[in-house]
Design brief:
With about 350 residues, this protein is an alpha/beta fold. The chain has a domain of about 240 residues: Rossmann fold, CATH 3.40.50. About 35% of the residues lie in helices and about 25% in strands. It has twelve helices and 13 strands. The strands form three sheets. A seven-stranded mixed β-sheet has the order 3-2-1-4-5-13-10, sandwiched between helices. The longest helix is centred in the first third of the chain and has 25 residues. It starts with about 20 loop residues before the first helix and ends with a strand. It binds S-adenosyl-L-homocysteine (SAH). S-adenosyl-L-homocysteine binds next to α1 and β2.
Length: about 350
């Protein structure tokens, strides 16, 4: 994939400006093509992407259930959601399974917002008269803009705020993290939840240490810090690295040191209720029959053995060791994909006041 730092969509040089890396990030995501399901299947990380979607589905389900269960009897069993860094609307269908009343989506990449609106309209037209939640989508930098001024109803109250694979962009600076948390909490109801997924700084740092290098990765992902940066210890904000994920992401990101995130969130009335790396979160969910069903429908795992495995044969030593005479196949993933997705953590905060 083309590196966005080498040139923007109309050939201009895109570099970090005084205003930070927002323009590089927006340009990167704007340039990502909308690829059909068939193309996606050819991707080396087809199962990993499905798995990530499965994790998001489980997280959304868990906290939507809590919101609906906590609603008083007399209250309408519907809720409002804010999706920060909504991208092309990859989670619209996930939300569509629940009684969402209204959705607001915001993303820094205007082309993605355009595609998100189209995806919503397509979704709506497919519902053939069945009630569909209302929505509004905006292109804005959530680390620098007071986004509630954009909303059609600036006083709208959200039951849940979701920020999937996007929160880490605000750790560029303290003021950006504060603006992001202001946006997350300004309209979030007390008792509501802030849920998301983000890379885990502990895991990244421990992998670097093991590698005795400022770079770590495998055939599907690579994390690299500039050679001249001081990582002992890394900066609290602005600890920038390049994240490369095969065919999807090639973008500057920032370390999110979780204790700092948690401390800062507290000042905004957010109490951490759950934080787990993807692998462990999966382990907790995988025995649930409903989750197993969804896992199958979403093709979250690769069948082993198979003639067209995504990775090389040696990437599957674990499922090979687990196979028994009575098993025809086992659901699994190549080691490289598993390592890449385990960089990530799910988190959930509850708004106390
Ligand atoms: N949440 C979506 C997209 C994840 S990709 C999903 O899970 O599929 C990360 C998204 O964060 C991109 O769409 C990118 O444009 C957005 N993003 C990055 N920095 C941002 C910022 N400062 N403000 C708003 N969105 C941002």
């Amino acid at each position: 994939m083309e590196n966005v730092e080498d040139g923007g969509p109309i050939g201009e040089k895109l570099q970090k400006t005084e205003n930070g890396i927002g323009n590089i990030v927006a340009s990167h995501y704007n340039k990502l093509e909308e690829k059909g399901i068939h193309h996606r299947k050819e991707s080396r990380i087809y199962y990993m992407r499905n798995f990530n979607n499965f994790i998001k589905s489980m997280l959304i389900q868990e906290y939507v259930d809590r919101i609906l269960n906590n609603k008083p009897e007399e209250e309408e069993k519907k809720f409002n959601v804010l999706d920060i860094g909504c991208g092309k609307g990859g989670d619209l269908l996930k939300w569509g399974k629940y009684p969402v009343k209204h959705m607001v989506g915001v993303d820094i990449a205007d082309t993605s917002i355009q595609q998100c609106k189209e995806r919503y309209n397509q979704y709506k037209s497919k519902q053939r008269g069945r009630p569909v939640f209302t929505s509004e989508f905006y292109a804005a930098d959530c680390t620098k803009t007071d986004i509630k001024n954009l909303y059609s109803e600036p006083d709208i109250k959200f039951d849940i705020v979701s920020c999937q694979f996007a929160f880490h962009y605000c750790f560029e600076s303290y003021s950006q993290a504060v603006t992001m948390l202001t946006n997350i909490t300004a309209n979030l109801k007390p008792g509501g939840f802030f849920v998301g997924t983000t890379p885990c700084a502990y895991e990244i740092m421990s992998r670097l240490k093991k590698n005795e290098s400022k770079e770590v990765g495998n055939s599907v992902y690579k994390i690299s810090f500039p050679e001249d940066c001081d990582l002992d210890p890394p900066a609290m904000f602005g600890a920038q690295y390049m994240f490369h994920l095969e065919g999807v992401v090639d973008c500057p990101e920032f370390l999110v040191y979780f204790p700092l995130f948690e401390e800062l969130a507290k000042k905004f009335g957010l109490l951490l209720v759950s934080r787990e790396r993807f692998g462990r979160y999966f382990d907790k969910k995988k025995t649930n029959p409903e989750a197993q069903n969804l896992m199958k429908r979403m093709s979250a795992l690769e069948a082993y053995p198979s003639d067209d495995l995504m990775g090389d044969k040696e990437q599957y030593s674990y499922p090979e060791s687990q196979l028994t005479d009575t098993m025809r196949t086992i659901g699994t993933m190549s080691i490289d994909e598993w390592e890449a997705l385990n960089v990530y953590t799910v988190f959930a905060f509850k708004k106390l006041f």
